[in-house]
Design goal:
alpha/beta, 8-stranded mixed sheet, single chain, globular, Rossmann fold
């Protein structure tokens, strides 16, 4: 990890060797950007999300900083309906479609939940999970969490932007709630690059918050999502302030827009396999 005041070394792109003694894998961090975060910050999965609990005079743009990372498990559990199911089934899909001696990409890996789900179920020889996130705080905590787990397939963590990250020799690619934070004009090229990196028969799992073409339906779905959050303990103030923080940061698209982009990129079939309120997950076949 890069400590405050230290220089970050760019390490070669290489797989991680599993330990024959303990069964644990060594976590390899590839740092593609400078990191000035403090090392060794311990965070508990039980930290409650109270970031927007108090009235704020100024609401800053939402970002995946240390404050968000420290409460991220609680935040996403209470904010995204079906998140645990999506993560679990990402592992199931990866186990079914991974090919031997290929890469499985988790793009925008956050704390590594999808990476771990894949790594624990994929049994094909020579596979590795390549996990990428541009938040130093996320990578720091993902390292701590992943290093405590025993998996069948090695995980390689990268501190890097998914835009421009080299994608090669893939059989599975995953973007769980990541594309929505990428500038709209850059999404086509990224999805095309993902498609081109996948071998025939490979899959791309794309999970996103969505909007609806019909304004009335969009309003209803949003209200049901807000009810979901309220039922999970968020106040109306918290819901409102976070919504303001996410404006022009999280840009949702319709299912039709996602589907057309995937077809244009070269995917043969696109199926919605999960949908709850204004959240969905697609699986696209190369």
């Amino acid at each position: 990890m890069g400590c405050k005041g230290s220089k970050v070394q760019i390490l070669p792109f290489r797989p991680i060797q599993k330990s024959r003694v303990s069964g644990f894998f060594n976590v390899c961090i590839i740092l593609s950007t400078n990191s000035n975060r403090e090392c060794g910050v311990a965070m508990s999965a039980n930290n409650p999300d109270q970031i927007y609990a108090q009235q704020r005079e100024v609401i800053e743009r939402f970002s995946f900083d240390q404050q968000v990372v420290s409460v991220f498990p609680d935040m996403i559990r209470r904010s995204v309906p079906g998140y645990a199911t999506i993560v679990e089934m990402t592992g199931v899909l990866a186990a079914r479609y991974a090919k031997p001696n290929t890469n499985l990409y988790d793009l925008g890996c956050s704390l590594g939940a999808s990476s771990l789900a894949m790594a624990k179920l994929v049994q094909q020889d020579g596979c590795r999970i390549v996990s990428v996130d541009n938040s130093a705080a996320m990578i720091d905590q993902a390292t701590a969490l992943i290093s405590q787990s025993t998996t069948a397939t090695p995980i390689e963590l990268h501190l890097a932007d998914v835009l421009g990250f080299p994608l090669t020799n893939a059989s599975v690619a995953v973007m769980n709630f990541t594309l929505q934070f990428i500038a709209a004009e850059k999404r086509d090229a990224l999805v095309t690059e993902i498609a081109q990196s996948l071998a025939p028969g490979g899959i791309f799992v794309l999970s996103e918050k969505i909007r609806f073409e019909d304004d009335a339906e969009d309003a209803i779905q949003q209200s049901m999502h807000h009810a979901f959050k309220f039922n999970n303990g968020y106040s109306q103030l918290e819901i409102s302030q976070k919504r303001t923080a996410l404006e022009n940061v999280l840009i949702p698209e319709t299912i039709a827009e996602h589907r057309q982009r995937l077809i244009n990129a070269g995917f043969q079939k696109v199926h919605v396999w999960f949908h709850c309120f204004n959240f969905m997950s697609l699986v696209a076949f190369r």
